[in-house]
Amino acid sequence: MLSIPVTYSDTYKPTGSKHRARTAPDPPPLFDDTSGGYSSQPGGYPAPGADVAFNVNHLLGDPMANVAMAYGSSIASHGKDMVHKELHRFVSVNKLKYFFAVDTAYVAKKLGLLVFPYTHQNWEVQYSRDAPLPPRRDLNAPDLYIPTMAFITYVLLAGIALGIQKRFSPEVLGLCASTALVWVVMEVLALLLGIYLATVRSDLSTFHLLAYSGYKYVGMILSVLTGLLFGSDGYYVALAWTSSALMYFLVRSLRTAALGPDSMGGSAPRQRLQLYLTLGAAAFQPLIIYWLTFHLVR
């Protein structure tokens, strides 16, 4: 018989051979095992969570970092105190709160007084322990709530009027709002200058003048709303009524409530200056109302 020689590969050895195959070493892993925080390899990278935790703990444990954080907090607190100090220097928060101390009953009665002031008899501001009563307890006290809400309502109503006339755009509405605000600021500055030149001794402040000047927004709203409902004829009727009512209201309020009886006891020339100042402020109101509302009614 023919004998066939058997050859074996290098990687295979028969069982029982004295020469065993060498075990090949495991290939290096593509990625390090970071499940335990840091890799066991010398060049391993920390896990994302472990890195943040390490940095935070390192910063919290670093005395220099603690000093820097304390210094930053001190600077922030000092800056906050400076802001509050400068704010109280130019704007008294307590005085500002006084002009917003209103309730529903006061707002309803004050709106009625602005539209129908002719039947009102007592115009004197009431005092308690040498301090004026808040608006919710005194109908004659000026407030800033009605002027603020009336200004916002006027801007919204102007947007509606412009939209009905197909003339609405954000630029036009912004110009309308800024113009109304600038006119009030100019009026307040003119009144302050007039009071200074006329040497009027009174407790009138900027907030008082801003409140009295802002009441015109109520008449502007009524005029525009009437014009939208009844046309230009209704607009002019409402304009005449609200303007005359506002003029009467300002004359009585400034002469009785704002200027006070002490300021009316001066010399005759000073009293005439005070009267001219009051009448001039009142006579200027219809012009401003017309200028800010006529373009909204067509």
TrEMBL record:
Transmembrane parts of this sequence: 144-166, 172-197, 209-229, 235-254, 275-293
GO biological process: endoplasmic reticulum to Golgi vesicle-mediated transport; protein transport
Lineage: Eukaryota, Metazoa, Chordata, Craniata, Vertebrata
Keywords for the protein's UniProt record, in alphabetical order: Endoplasmic reticulum, Golgi apparatus, Membrane, Protein transport, Transmembrane, Transmembrane helix, Transport
Function according to Swiss-Prot or TrEMBL: Has a role in transport between endoplasmic reticulum and Golgi.
Official protein name in the record: Protein YIF1
One GO cellular component, as annotated: Golgi membrane
InterPro entries xref list: Yif1_fam (IPR005578)
Designated gene of the protein: YIF1A
